């Protein structure tokens, strides 16, 4: 479970800390706890921190405090703890109202409580959680990425991490859309900031899973998070949509695509169903989709293409059936391939195809006749249509059309 502004209130030793504002943001994850007294925190934070202040540099000036809070919110910090005492006697109402609107948690702590003790308690909890995360991550990387034998020793290790042989586990991969382009566009080259962004995405995924009372294993590789969730496929659909929506809501212009594989119980099958989710995500990229949820079971005939050892035979089949039409379009700046795809999608109905493409029915009729001439085929023949539809899917899969 991630360390959040909500669950730190349950840590032993923090009984005197209370929330005074921003309860809507209590599920923000905390990366670390800092005591900072300077008004400008820019050089000291990376995002995700919980800040502690006594107010010695701010005093009882509500306008300065409000400006300070606006600044740390803009830097994606998780919350603020005010040491109530000689410098700040109470949290001003204007500050409370602003934090409530922004969903930014503000806590109060009596001045007699030593900040060093409180920050140590929180940082120990974060450190313990991170150590557990790293251990689980390393184990799962072995299971799903390494060519190893799943023996009794591996099963015993899995059980220690919470694996139950009688339960169903479903694969779910969360991939940050165009992340390399995003950090380049934002001119982000600090590895720690990049890591913090990824950690925030992972924290949101884990938050949604925790909220749904789901146990899970996970591994991280590049810009993707690989989860084996204790759930069946039917429930995982809803959870995946919740993850996608929550990330869009909390992370602004960062979106994710989610691939879902099948379910399994045996640890040795984890790699297989993870591969299914990878294939689903790969197809979403071929289709040019992002901010989406795609299931392996919904890939249809595309599932067969992944298991063909080489693309040569598929390319040959495409060339035999559709290459002439593709070349004709390229030479004449025409759209006969697009017309053919729409015509077949509309079950060879001229009227519906015309509506779909916003052109006259007679124009569609002329184009279909021209297509039949170029391909030397009869589009009224079901077997011919089956072959062409298969080749269209091959063309999409191989990015030929």
From TrEMBL:
Supply the gene name.
Answer: pucR_1
InterPro entries from the xrefs?
A: CdaR-like_regulators, CdaR_GGDEF, GGDEF_dom, PucR_C-HTH_dom, PucR_C-HTH_sf, PucR_dom
Q: Please name the PROSITE patterns in this protein's record.
A: GGDEF
GGDEF domain residues: 167-297
Q: What is this protein called?
A: Purine catabolism regulatory protein
Which Pfam family is an annotated match for this chain, by its short name?
Answer: PucR
Q: Provide the family line.
A: Belongs to the CdaR family.
């Amino acid at each position: 479970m991630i360390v959040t502004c909500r669950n730190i209130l349950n840590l032993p030793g923090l009984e005197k800390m209370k929330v005074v504002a921003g309860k809507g943001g209590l599920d923000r994850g905390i990366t670390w706890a800092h005591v900072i007294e300077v008004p400008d925190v820019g050089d000291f934070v990376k995002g995700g921190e919980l800040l502690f202040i006594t107010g010695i540099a701010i005093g009882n000036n509500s306008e300065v405090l409000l400006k300070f809070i606006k600044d740390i919110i803009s830097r994606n910090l998780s919350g603020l703890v005010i040491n109530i005492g000689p410098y700040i006697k109470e949290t001003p109402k204007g500050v409370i109202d602003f934090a409530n609107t922004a969903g930014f948690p503000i806590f109060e702590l009596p001045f007699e409580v030593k900040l060093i003790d409180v920050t140590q308690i929180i940082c120990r909890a974060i450190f313990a959680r991170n150590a557990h995360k790293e251990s689980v991550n390393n184990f799962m990387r072995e299971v799903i990425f390494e060519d190893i034998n799943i023996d009794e020793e591996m099963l015993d290790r899995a059980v220690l991490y919470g694996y139950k042989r009688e339960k169903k586990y479903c694969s779910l991969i969360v991939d940050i859309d165009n992340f390399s382009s995003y950090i380049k566009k934002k001119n982000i080259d600090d590895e720690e900031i990049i890591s913090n962004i990824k950690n925030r995405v992972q924290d949101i995924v884990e938050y949604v899973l925790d909220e749904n009372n789901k146990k899970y294993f996970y591994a991280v590789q590049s810009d993707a998070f690989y989860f084996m969730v204790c759930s069946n496929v039917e429930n995982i659909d809803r959870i995946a949509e919740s993850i996608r929506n929550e990330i869009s809501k909390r992370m602004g212009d960062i979106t994710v695509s989610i691939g879902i594989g099948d379910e399994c119980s045996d640890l040795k099958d984890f790699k297989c169903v993870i591969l299914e989710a990878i294939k689903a995500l790969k197809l979403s990229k071929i289709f040019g989709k992002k901010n989406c949820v795609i299931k392996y079971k919904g890939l249809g005939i595309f599932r067969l293409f992944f298991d063909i050892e080489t693309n040569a035979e598929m390319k040959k089949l495409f060339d035999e059936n559709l290459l002439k039409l593709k070349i004709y379009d390229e030479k004449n700046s025409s759209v006969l391939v697009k017309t053919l795809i729409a015509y077949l999608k509309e079950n060879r109905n001229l009227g519906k195809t015309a509506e779909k493409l916003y052109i006259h029915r007679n124009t569609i009729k002329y184009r279909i006749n021209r297509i039949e001439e170029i391909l030397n085929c009869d589009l009224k023949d079901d077997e011919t249509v089956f072959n062409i539809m298969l080749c269209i899917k091959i063309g999409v899969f191989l990015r030929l059309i």
